[in-house]
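Re: weekly structure request thread

Next one in the queue (248 aa):
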Amino acid sequence: MSQACAAPLSRGRLTVRAAETAADMANLMALRGRVFRGDAQADDRDAFDVAAIHVLVEESGVIRAGFRLLAMDSGAGTSLGYAAARYDLSRLASFAPPVLELGRFCTHPEAALDTDVLRLAWAFITREVDARGAGMLCGCTSFPGRDPARHRAALAHLTRHLAPEALAPLPRGADAIPFARDLAGVVPDPVAALAGLPPLLRTYLMMGGWVSDHAVPDPDLDTLHVFTAVEIAAIPPARARALRALAG
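Done, posted below.
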């Protein structure tokens, strides 16, 4: 599938657009290094960057957030994406529509509480989904810190949002943490559960998204991640209208 990207989108003080220059990529990589590795000079590049669409959210020309999108012709293409190195996604091969894999979503610490940044990022993603006729958006959503005990309330909440069996990711390695089994029947404190969800994951769930029944620790980044997806047809109509209105 083509990796060509939509035109820039501006709302108020913010603009979201595809990276176009070496300077754009340098700014994006500095943000990724700072957020994921604690050092703006750290190298966070990987083999998937070459094929990806890289997107920046800017305020007065200063990067506030960034992410990448990998476009796939169908669910079978997820076997070649970033998440497939950590999850067995063979069941997604039956998903016929195009898929977008969203990854490396990061927000500058100074913009971490700026909900407009996340909203505009989702508006741009909505444009890409519609332009490509994508039927699913997926990726790995990370919790800071790979110890699952730190995220017990949030993980217990996720047991209510598990993938349908026909599409559910399967464990790929012995390090998979079966939180859905371990926390079955646990009723978490709702305030702690929602507070413990990364903002990106919270948005997925608000759109009717689902997650894998197991988490995978990432020692390299000291994170714990779950496979996350939302089927576009399952997004509540009112939320879909709001996103498309923002997307223009």
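Residues 9-247 form a domain with the Aminopeptidase fold (CATH 3.40.630.30). The chain has one domain: 9-247.
Next request, please.
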